[in-house]
């Protein structure tokens, strides 16, 4: 599937596939009840398109398993190839059926991220994404062949312990590492504790977790490699990738129609304004017709029509990082993202965990940190206590852990539990 050459070409693709998506959805018993009478000839008119009701997580959550598979999903398709686990829409996650046509598109959408990262034929990839029921790891490993990239299907620390992952990196010398950003930090810290080098890795490809500038700087500094972040959702597929560090994700608008809407009025947000992301799958809808799916992501939209490279035909979205959680400690709202950015700006700290604790008295903030070798730990702790007090109005308890401790604790988790409320 070749890249579109122009935005005019993309508009033609969108016009054709939006209509096909609505016609496809109209065959679903779920959508038959919800869709108003729509003029299919006028779907390029924004007002007509917005007559389609938004599909949100609460609506999907209200469906039973049987209702989802018999009413929402299509019964007629080209065959079920596999199932993709939902990203946590409900307490009981759904497993989305993917047809063979869906998988063809899915493999190409993932493969494009290798292109954005500058990775190509002859390189070797170490994939540390989970290889179980979450699709990201196994799709990445499978699509690499289309770009001539060798793959080691390592999986997460739960399936291949971190110590063995480091051994494989030493022996096989991959040039690309793929995984969640938190696990990149854990592997790097464990490598330092064991005196191992990760110098063969030139490119890092991450997804599924927010990557702030401070976190990006720390990972790139630790590995000595360039990081490319990627964005997708199980309801649609891999949707985009960075082509410039930290600038946002180029969205494959030949595969997905995206809207950024005011979170309250659901009117279109202006370019650069924060809004909620609404996605319509244009090609991965052969079984699951996700029309105007509200993902819960808060983003900004930019046309980004700069003509810089083959991906400049696509617009960008950038996460606002507004959905991150927080601790409330002694009346102070302590944002997780703010604290993470603050800690990662300290090169003396390898990794950390923040805990809200109460040992029978007042609530307190405990920072468990791992220190780089050869630093003055007492001076670091003293300075950190003062800085946290000044910035966050809380005096933390600081506990120094042996390097590699957090990596061992985290490696069994899909995502790192970096913030823990122990009260």
Q: In words, what does this structure look like?
A:
It is a single chain. This protein is α/β, with parallel strands linked by helices and 423 residues long. The chain folds into 2 domains: 321 residues, Rossmann fold (3-Layer(aba) Sandwich), CATH 3.40.50.12780; 96 residues, ANL, C-terminal domain (GMP Synthetase, Chain A, domain 3, 2-Layer Sandwich), CATH 3.30.300. The chain is built from 13 helices and 19 strands. The strands form 4 sheets. It has an 11-stranded mixed beta sheet. Strands 18-17-16-19 form a 4-stranded mixed beta sheet. It has a two-stranded antiparallel sheet with strand order 1-2. The longest helix is centred in the first third of the chain and has 19 residues. It is globular.
Descriptive tags:
globular, eleven-stranded mixed sheet, 32% helix, 423 residues, Rossmann fold, alpha/beta, four-stranded mixed sheet, GMP Synthetase, Chain A, domain 3, 13 helices
The low-confidence parts are none
What is the CATH third-level topology name of the largest domain? Rossmann fold
Give the C-level CATH assignment of the largest domain: Alpha Beta
Task: Provide the structure class.
Answer: alpha/beta
Strand order of the largest sheet: 4-3-5-6-7-8-9-13-12-11-10
Q: Which value, in Å, is the CA radius of gyration?
A: 23 Å
CATH superfamily of the largest domain: ANL, N-terminal domain
Secondary structure: number of strands: 19
Work out the helix count. Answer: 13
Helix percent band: 25-40%
N- and C-termini, Cα separation = 52 Å
So, CATH architecture of the largest domain?
3-Layer(aba) Sandwich
What does the largest sheet look like? Answer: 11 strands, mixed
Total domain modules: 2
Estimate the mean pLDDT confidence.
91
Strand fraction equals 15-25%
Shape label:
globular
């Amino acid at each position: 599937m070749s890249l579109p050459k122009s935005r005019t070409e993309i508009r033609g693709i969108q016009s054709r596939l939006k209509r096909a998506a609505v016609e496809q959805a109209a065959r679903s018993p779920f959508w038959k009840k919800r869709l108003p009478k729509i003029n299919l000839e006028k779907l390029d008119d924004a007002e007509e398109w917005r007559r389609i009701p938004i599909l949100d997580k609460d609506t999907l959550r209200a469906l039973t398993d049987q209702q989802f598979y018999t009413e929402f999903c299509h019964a007629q398709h080209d065959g079920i190839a596999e199932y993709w686990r939902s990203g946590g829409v409900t307490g009981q996650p759904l497993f989305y059926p993917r047809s063979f046509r869906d998988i063809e598109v899915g493999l190409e959408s993932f493969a494009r991220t290798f292109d954005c990262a500058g990775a190509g034929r002859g390189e070797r990839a170490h994939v540390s994404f989970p290889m179980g029921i979450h699709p990201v790891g196994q799709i990445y490993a499978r699509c690499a062949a289309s770009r001539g990239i060798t793959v080691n299907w390592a999986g997460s620390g739960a399936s291949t312990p971190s110590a063995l992952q480091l051994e494989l990196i030493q022996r096989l010398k991959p040039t690309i590492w793929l995984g969640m950003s938190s696990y990149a930090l854990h592997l790097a810290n464990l490598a330092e504790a064991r005196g191992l080098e990760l110098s063969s890795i030139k490119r890092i490809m991450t997804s599924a977790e927010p990557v702030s500038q401070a976190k990006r700087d720390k990972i790139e500094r630790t590995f000595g490699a360039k990081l490319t972040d990627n964005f997708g959702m199980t309801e649609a597929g891999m949707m985009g990738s960075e082509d410039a560090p930290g600038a946002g994700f180029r969205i494959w608008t030949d595969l997905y129609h995206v809207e950024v809407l005011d979170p309250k009025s659901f009117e279109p947000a202006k370019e650069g304004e924060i809004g909620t992301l609404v996605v319509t799958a244009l090609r991965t809808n052969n079984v699951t017709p996700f029309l105007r799916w509200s993902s819960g992501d808060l983003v900004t939209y930019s046309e980004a029509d700069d003509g810089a490279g083959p991906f400049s035909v696509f617009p960008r979205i950038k996460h606002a990082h507004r959905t991150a959680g927080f601790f409330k400690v002694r009346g102070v709202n302590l944002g997780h993202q703010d604290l993470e950015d603050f800690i990662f700006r300290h090169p003396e700290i390898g990794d950390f965990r923040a805990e809200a604790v109460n040992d029978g008295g007042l609530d307190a903030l405990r920072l468990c940190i791992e220190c780089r070798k050869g630093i003055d730990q007492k001076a670091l702790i003293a300075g950190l206590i003062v800085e946290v007090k000044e910035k966050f109005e809380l005096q933390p308890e600081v506990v120094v852990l042996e390097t590699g401790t957090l990596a061992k604790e985290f490696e069994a988790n899909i995502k790192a539990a970096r913030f823990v409320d122990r009260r």
